[in-house]
Amino acid sequence: MAVLEAWRLHVAPACCLMGLLSAYRYAGCLGDLASYDLYTIGGPYSVRGYNVGELASSRRVFEGAVEVRVPVPKLNTHAYGFLEHGTDLGSSKDVVGNPTEYFRKAGSGSSAGVGLKLAAVRTECIWDGNTRRRSFWAHFGERF
User: Fold this and answer.
1) Residue 69 CB coordination number (10 Å)
2) Taking a C-beta distance cutoff of 8 angstroms, is the pair 100, 83 a contact?
3) Whole-number Å distance between alpha carbons of 5 and 22
4) In the beta sheet, which residues pair with residue 4?
5) What are the sequence ranges of the domains in the chain?
6) CA-CA distance, 113 to 65, in Å (whole number)?
7) pLDDT one-digit tens code per residue, 8-61
8) pTM, to two decimals
């Protein structure tokens, strides 16, 4: 089994007060893949606004994210807005038992949201693109 995984992170200052980040990830495998090693889409480090693996379990995934950060000097932190998308590239059907279809997962999805970083905690309000459901999350650490 050969596993390919690549992350691409771009950081470009939009101006001296803002930051623009974009990240793209492709992951795939050649050969057999055990069901517990499947790539999952959804969750705080994949497509935010969904539970872990809520969108798909597959052999190949592509994820993209764009985030704009704006400093908040009074709180000595930053606020941000983001757009994310993830897809299984149609590879779920190649998995034995097709868990994405069996559990009626979407196979792909998008989310958008806003957040504020307070010390080590990221608080976020996220809208998922499939059901237009809004959720609130609090996480520790950085997304990128």
Assistant:
1) 21
2) no
3) 17
4) 28
5) 2-140
6) 11
7) 555 555 445 688 989 999 999 888 888 888 999 998 889 999 999 999 999 999
8) 0.82
CA 94, 99, 102, 106 torsion: positive or negative?
negative
> What are 73's two structure tokens?
């000097």
User: What CATH class is the domain 2-140?
Assistant: mainly beta
Question: For 66-118, what is each residue's pLDDT tens digit?
Answer: 999 999 989 889 999 999 999 999 998 888 888 888 999 999 999 999 999 99
Are the C-beta atoms of 49 and 55 separated by less than 8 Å? no
The three-state secondary structure class of 76 is coil
CA distance 29 to 6: 12
Report the candidate in 32, 10, 35, 36 with the shortest Cα–Cα distance to residue 23.
10
Beta bridge partners of 22: 10, 66
